[in-house]
């Protein structure tokens, strides 16, 4: 069986937004053979008050999880924040309140003291653009706020928390710290100037803001003035704290049109027709990932550290039949996107790893942002492993394919 080719040292793994269920899931990870495993520490679970003492049971659970991963020869990659904000902080304004950044810094110190001696890789804040724009702009995920221009403060504070987390982790001795940001190509609906302008605005806000802030220590020129009231001296230097890798969570491009009459937003999301789609309606366009990687690397050049695909996957439902889950569509999706990444590497893009999203279907699991499935098609079944209502795990066909890919790479990957 032919697989996409990657350089020696390329890291394969899986990424979950929830913690594993215990030893059975660590055993699954060991069977898969992909050494990297990204998991998120729940701030809400570990420090329910948002400040002060950590929950004893949660401390033990995360402590044990890291030991189990290491005993299985797996490489833990821990994310400090993936959307689970403690209730007292949420009630006090959440990320609209700059004090949340200070609380996050203290929390980062506590987590580093708990498991920092054994976790080799870290992400302080996952998907700050998702948390800000969907949580405080559109209101489609927790906390469900439509804060108007307050979304600018939420985005800035999430990015500032990222930078603060980088600094805290460095002080604690962490040697590999990066980010994991949701990026997607933004395509205009047409060549009409109104559509092109709307797409440019969304691209600047969604892609440009985190990239420019983390890599260049500034906000995109066309929208920088919007943040004047929330940026304090020294903030941008903190956000620009050096990274060992730039993590990209990628799923699909988005098509944007000018707002329709009566809309309260300056843009509208338009269905991406003409391409295959996942169960959640997201278009499958692997070449878009290749081109985005090439263009973005060219744009930022020396400012861009090595890239890691920190999450990439697709939602496809398939039943268990005679103990088998035939999810060939997921195999095709992963293979095509890995081929796109391989092609980008051949064009000179420095990509060091790929984390398949996710290990497990989320049936019976809480999504981190809302306590329920995400809205607008994000709550589908992304797992390499089927999970039924009773919690029984059944590895899918994609699990076997991914295991074979990893084994083939480890046995004889080229050095290109």
Automatic annotation (TrEMBL):
Keyword NAD: no
Pfam families: Glyco_hydro_1
Key words of the record: Glycosidase, Hydrolase
Taxonomic superkingdom: Bacteria
GO cellular component, one term: cytosol
Keyword Hydrolase found: yes
Protein name: Beta-glucosidase
Xref: SUPFAM superfamilies: (Trans)glycosidases
Taxonomic lineage: Bacteria, Bacillati, Actinomycetota, Actinomycetes, Propionibacteriales
Family: Belongs to the glycosyl hydrolase 1 family.
Entry's Gene Ontology molecular function annotations: beta-glucosidase activity
A biological-process GO annotation: carbohydrate catabolic process
């Amino acid at each position: 069986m032919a697989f996409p080719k990657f350089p020696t040292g390329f890291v394969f793994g899986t990424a979950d937004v929830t913690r594993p269920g215990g030893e059975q899931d660590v055993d699954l990870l060991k069977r898969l053979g992909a050494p990297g495993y990204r998991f998120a520490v729940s701030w809400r679970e570990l420090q329910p008050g948002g400040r002060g003492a950590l929950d004893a049971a949660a401390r033990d659970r995360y402590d044990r999880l890291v030991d189990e991963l290491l005993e299985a020869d797996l490489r833990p990659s821990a994310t400090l924040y993936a959307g689970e904000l403690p209730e007292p902080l949420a009630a006090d304004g959440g990320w609209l309140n700059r004090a949340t950044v200070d609380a996050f810094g203290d929390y980062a110190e506590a987590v580093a003291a708990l498991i920092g001696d054994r976790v080799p890789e870290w992400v302080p804040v996952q998907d700050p653009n998702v948390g800000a724009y969907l949580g405080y702009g559109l209101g489609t995920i927790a906390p469900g706020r439509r804060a108007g221009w307050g979304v600018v403060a939420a985005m800035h504070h999430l990015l500032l928390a990222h930078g603060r987390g980088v600094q805290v982790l460095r002080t604690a001795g962490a040697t590999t710290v990066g980010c994991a940001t949701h990026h997607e190509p933004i395509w205009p609906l047409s060549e009409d100037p109104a559509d092109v302008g709307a797409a440019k605005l969304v691209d600047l806000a969604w892609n440009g803001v985190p990239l420019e802030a983390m890599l260049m220590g500034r906000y995109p020129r066309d929208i920088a003035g919007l943040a004047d009231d929330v940026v304090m001296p020294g903030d941008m230097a903190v956000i620009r704290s050096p990274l060992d890798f730039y993590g990209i969570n990628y799923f699909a491009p988005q098509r944007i049109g000018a707002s329709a009459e009566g809309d309260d937003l300056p843009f509208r999301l338009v269905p991406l027709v003409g391409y295959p789609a996942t169960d959640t309606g997201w278009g499958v366009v692997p070449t878009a990932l290749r081109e985005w990687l090439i263009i973005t690397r060219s744009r930022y050049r020396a400012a861009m550290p090595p890239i890691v695909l920190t999450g990439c996957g697709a939602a496809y439902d398939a039943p268990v039949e005679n103990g088998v889950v035939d999810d060939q569509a997921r195999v095709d999706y992963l293979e095509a996107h890995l081929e796109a990444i391989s092609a980008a590497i051949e064009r000179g893009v420095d990509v060091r790893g790929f984390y398949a999203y996710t290990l497990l279907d989320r049936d019976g699991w809480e999504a981190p942002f809302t306590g329920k499935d995400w809205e607008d098609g994000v709550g589908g079944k992304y797992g390499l492993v089927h999970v039924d209502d009773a919690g029984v795990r059944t590895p899918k066909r994609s699990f076997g394919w991914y295991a074979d890919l990893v084994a083939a790479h480890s046995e004889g990957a080229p050095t290109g």
